[in-house]
Specification:
Blueprint: H1 17-29, H2 34-46, H3 57-64, H4 68-81, H5 83-87, H6 103-114, H7 126-135, H8 144-165
Helix pairs in contact: 1-2, 2-4, 7-8
């Protein structure tokens, strides 16, 4: 498969000896995330300094089994923001909603869900919990979906911990 080639490279990668050493160490260590190792390999192959290999984007894409767009973005991130910007994943604080239940509020929700239900009810429903967490000033507002997800996440982590630590003996054959 022949990858598309840009006419002129806009971002030329030239690494210093220290940067090359750091990238090589990152690759050889083997404990870094795969995305970071891939970007380090891209930068080393694209390096146009005297010690670099100065491979074309198409050749890098073929050798590392990645896209030319990933290579060009990595080049751009290095040139515009430095080696840290190229290696670390950018997190936008606006990309995700803030959590409604922090650790303390989540603990209060679990305690409430484990407490006896209101008078005249056999058990807590998500709607009842939704009303109760607002009335008790645990959170300002929450939907029944959010409460259900929070309880499901908590219960699944509790059961996985208990299943992992308790070992059952196999039943003998009859």
């Amino acid at each position: 498969m022949i990858a598309k080639q840009p006419a002129v490279k806009r971002y030329i990668v030239t690494l210093s000896a220290d940067e090359r050493e750091r990238l090589n160490a990152l690759i050889q260590k083997g404990t870094s995330p795969a995305r970071q190792v891939l970007k380090a390999r891209i930068l080393l192959k694209a390096d146009a300094s005297e010690a670099g290999e100065a491979w074309s984007d198409g050749r890098i894409a073929e050798a590392l089994d990645t896209s030319i767009d990933t290579i060009s973005r990595t080049r751009q991130q290095l040139v515009e923001g430095g080696i840290e910007a190229a290696l670390t994943r950018k997190h936008s604080p606006n990309s995700a909603r803030p959590r409604i239940f922090d650790g303390a509020a989540e603990a209060k929700l679990i305690a409430l869900a484990c407490s006896p239900p209101p008078k005249g009810r056999k058990r807590w429903t998500l709607t009842l919990l939704e009303t109760a967490v607002v009335q008790l000033n645990i959170v300002d507002r929450a939907s029944d979906n959010t409460i259900g997800r929070t309880l499901k996440k908590t219960l699944s982590s509790l059961t996985s911990r208990s299943n992992g630590s308790s070992r059952r003996r196999p039943t003998p054959p009859l």
